[in-house]
Each structure stands twice: as structure tokens, then as C-alpha cells.
Design goal:
The longest helix has 22 residues. It is built from 13 helices and 17 strands. The model has no long low-confidence stretch (mean pLDDT about 95). It folds into two domains: about 250 residues, TIM Barrel (Alpha-Beta Barrel), CATH 3.20.20; about 130 residues, Beta Barrel (Lyase, Ornithine Decarboxylase, Chain A, domain 1). It is of the alpha/beta class. Bound molecules: pyridoxal-5'-phosphate. The site of pyridoxal-5'-phosphate has 17 residues, from loops.
Amino acid sequence: MISELPFDKLKIDSILGKHPTPFHIYDEKGIIENAKRFNRAFGILPGFKNYFAVKALPNPFIMKILKEENMGMDCSSMSELILAEKTGIKGEDIMFSSNDTPSEELVKAVELGAIINLDDITHIEFLEKCAGIPEVICFRYNPGGLKRGNSIIGNPTEAKYGFTREQIIEGYKLARQKGAKKFGLHTMVISNELDKNYFIETADIIFDLVLEVHDKLGIELDFVNLGGGIGIPYRPDQVAVNYDELAKGIYESYKSKILANGLELKIFMECGRVITGPYGYLITEVIHMKNTYKKYVGCDASMSNLMRPAMYGAYHHITVLGKEKEVADFCCDVTGSLCENNDKFAIDRMLPKINVGDLLVIHDTGAHGHSMGFNYNGKLRSAELLLRKDGSVVEIRRTETVDDYFRTLDFNLLEKFK
Ligand SMILES: Cc1ncc(COP(=O)(O)O)c(C=O)c1O
């Protein structure tokens, strides 16, 4: 289902003088209302906390809004840890879930007091050597053939992430010997999944493993982190996951497996997409119309602003601003300017008749949108704007300039270079 836009053409026209296209604009009211609904639903789970996956939308202004809504931060790199720190988030409000991790990132995470979630059994000694074993430690479980995964995250048996079941047991034993006192168990095996039963099955698998750890080692786990991966309805015919039903399903599993065996633990998640995804929009102007073997609508944005359609063939709904009520009888490919033929936001999309100068709204760019941007072809990263609750617009990241782009080059050295 495609939700109504939080702005109209008049509003966007009024900001274009100050904020030229392309830009991403995020809807603060939508994000806050959704975060409250999410926390209300999952609040039935013991000690529930969502660690927002910073990689989805690594903007400290958005992170500050989510902090106010009691979210922690799931970080996976030095820059994301620093963003959390700058936003005033530290200690166990940070979960550091990285893979193939360099030692300096573990050192920083330990320094911030973050919960460290290790990706491999060999990382226990690696962590011990570089930063010491903290009191709280968590391991990422890869359930292998027990889950099917999907095209974004891969089939678990082929995916590079996590410990095997046997390694999880060995890992807790080893970490306990080395001084860890509190233990967590994490998994993340799906991305952009709309079937709530998938997550309930994952909870079943994780809770069974909690029981196995208790039986084999006598360890009572402090928490489980069921990962992120809740999908959003990018297509008009898709339906959003019902938070209440999913929370109840996880609780039932918790009750029958954990409570029934006399145990208790906290339940965490690290959703990104479902928290901010539907509340971001990429605004781009049509600068060329091309008619060859197909009809092409050429935009001033490119896949460097939004990679998902080119990378995954992902659908993003497109609205032509001011033409919302017009008949969609024009079939076209909506393209960007990269020297890559897959630089298309849409293929064979039916839209209303389009003219140069029209503004397109590309929906659902609030997660894994701007953050997946890049500089290929020397393209500059766009600005990020926030539509505030009171209707005002604030620039929360400026557009990159050519000077930013060239900052890593030394042109003085070039002059002398022969
Ligand atoms: C370890 C981990 N946690 C959480 C997420 C967030 O996923 P989503 O934004 O789909 O909820 C990701 C996504 O790549 C991830 O790799």
C-alpha cells in the first residue's frame, strides 16, 4: 500500500530556491508516530529495545529523534560508533554488530561500553588481545539450513555471517573461561521480509538454542537479539507487517519455550528499514525526455542517490508531483545519468504524461537510500532534509561540493608530479 505524501507540490516548490534537487526529505512526524507504534506493540516483550540499524539512515539528527523514542543504536563500523557517540548514545544503548572487524573498531566499541556482538568464534581471542573481554558479550548465530534467507542477505549456508550451532556452545564456554559474565545471542537471517511467521520461526529457533545453551553449559542468557529485516510495502499491492501480531507471535514462542522452562531473558531487535524506510522520499527533477527504442525520463538524481533499484531490481513507487490524480498511461524507464545502463529508478513504469521540469517523488527512501550512495562518475552526494512536525524544513546534511569530492587529492603535488 502506498501511503499519502506528507507534502504537496506547493510545499516542495516553496523550498526549491534554498534546496535544489535532488534531495532526500524525511518526515519527522511519520518517523515519531511509527516509532511509538512499534515500541507500543513490541513493548509486550520482556525488556524490549530496538537498536536502530544506523546503516539504514546514518544521520545524527534522525538518530537523536529515535533516541528520544528510547531506541538504542546498532553500529557496525567506526564511523557509525562515532555517530552514536556524537548523538550522546553510549554504553549498552549501543550494540556493535560487525563482521571481519578491524581491531581499532573493537577498541572504540569497548571504550564506549557498547555491547559487543561477535561474528566468529576466532574473534573471541582477537577481541581479548586488542581490547580485553568485556563483562557482557553476544554472539551472532547463523542457523545454516534451518532458515532459507533471501536474495538481499543470502542463504544462511552461503552467508559469511555468524557462528555455527556448535561454535556458539564452544564460544560461550570460552568467553566464560576468559571472564565474561553476561551473555547474549543474536541472529539476522532475512532482509525486507513481510511475512511475520518468518520472524516467529526465527524466534522459535533462537529460543531453542537458548535452552540448549542452558542445558549444556548452565548459562542463563541475559538477552536475545532477533535482528532487523522487517520489510516494508514498497509495492502498491503489498501490506505492511502488523506489529501487534508479530509481537504477540514472538511472545507466545517466548512463553512456551523460555518461561515454560523457568527461564527469563530480554528481547532486542535491530530494525532499520521498518523504522524510517517509508518516511523518506527522493525528490528529483526531470531534465530530459528521450524517445528512442523506448521512452526515457531523465532525472537529475542517479543511482548514486538511491542504489536499490539497480542493485536488487527493487521497486520504488514514483509520484509525479501535482499530477497525482492524472491517468497513468505513459510507459517509460526513469533514468539517472551514470554511465551504467542499470541506472534506472523504474523500468516500463506507467506514469502520467511527463514534461521536462516535472518533479518526481521516489518513495520509501528513508532506509538504505542515501546511506548506500556513492561517488562513481564523480557524482556528488545529495542533501538530506527533514520536514519537521511544525511543517518547517531543516537541512540535516548539506549537498556535497566538488571541493568535498577532491579533498582526498593533492593538486599541489600533482603540479610538481612528472
Ligand atoms: C546485522 C544487521 N542488523 C540490522 C540490519 C538492518 O536491517 P533492516 O534495515 O532491513 O531492518 C542489517 C541490514 O543490513 C544488518 O546487516
